[in-house]
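Suppose you are handed only these lines of text.
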Amino acid sequence: MNDLLRQLPQISKVIERFRGTAPENLIKKVARQVIEKYRREIKEGKRKSLEGLYPEIEREIEKLKKPRLRRVINATGIVINTNLGRSPLHPEALEAIKEVALGYSNLEYDLEKGTRGNRNAHIEEILCELTGSESAFVVNNNAGAVYLVLNTLALDREVVISRGELVEIGGSFRIPDIMSRSGSILREVGTTNKTRLKDYEEAIGENTALLMKVHRSNFYMEGFVEEVPIKELSKLAKEKGIPLYYDAGSGLIHDLKNYGLDEPSFSECLSQGADIVSGSGDKLLGGPQAGIILGKKELIERIKKNPMSRALRIDKLTLSALEATLRLYAEGRYSEIPALNMILQDEKTIKKRALKLKRKLSSLKEIEVSILKDRASPGGGSLPKLELPTYCVAITHPELSPDKLSELLRNSDPPLIGRVKEGKLLLDLRTVRDHEIDLIPRSISQALRDTTSSRTRSP
Ligand SMILES: *Cc1c(COP(=O)(O)O)cnc(C)c1O
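From them, the structure of the protein bound to pyridoxal-5'-phosphate can be written out as follows.
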């Protein structure tokens, strides 16, 4: 044992060996960590030779040289997956970003007049065209939009909202918290499962500034439930002279009811009488992260003038990608938008892709691969009820549990994220794009290579 400990290389030697492949302090850090790990394992009697030391250092250096934020392959079947970056962009949206990012742009410059322009102007017209809205304003994200709407229209005043809609959307975003931070006063009405028009009516008083309704984006209620539809609420709002704000969440531009997707589109919310509607750019809209605010001109003008709109303003790269995505809708090309394309694709297409992947994996002898038909929910932050038929490639390994397999693939290159079900690791082909299929065999074989070497190393 002492012999082995003495044979551990000095840090300076490791630095010498890897000089030029990475910054010296990075090599030093990795060398320290790996040598320390070997020292510990030798002392614990877990390691009988130094074999694999340098390859491990090399692998760790390569890992640290990679960007921390990087692509992964989403084989979870969840299309609008917030943890994995929500909606992928259409190539034309990326082109638009490149064009604007690599040089100067007319972001806030009016080319016709040669005077100062307005960044919102680039997008307002097309948003209004697509949704029938009078006016439009975009900010950094929908949480920002909710904040801005409340802070503008209901500062120090009451907002009437159903108890069934005081929702949490992913970790840090809770409607009651945003309301209180926005300076508005929460006036909750009804119960968790039932809220009637009368409840709103009775709550409206001198200090009421806004009626608010929130779409239940990530869950649904069934059974003994009742809520007031926008249309009825809007009648009451008009009667009382109070605006109605609907937080639609998912940002649907093109109605998908024909496809069985029961989500309210922007234009539907507006035509049913909401005075202000907001939603995200990177959920069902399929564009970049953004918060879209639509509705009555007079109200939107007030929102634009709120000094906080500067703090929440949209960045030029996002703006260019959003405009390009909206153009696809204007051209009737919504089914090309990746998020919608993945949700709308038919079973046959997915099955074909699953068979192709299975074929490509047949050369990997360590794993067993089969095709499995499953039902998956394509929505994470939206479409909570929707289940669509899908095809998966199911992987099992004689020695590795599905959870272990899933961990190894998560840490491979590129990281591959599947889901575990009934003792198998499933790769759902609904969310794997065509060009990603070729990357999967490499990712799996690399993950397995790492395990074989570590298993032979430590008996
Ligand atoms: C997703 C969502 C939000 C938050 O939108 P972000 O774009 O993530 O900030 C707010 N309200 C509802 C109803 C949502 O579904």
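What can we learn from it? The longest strand covers residues 368-376. The two ends are 16 Å apart (CA to CA).
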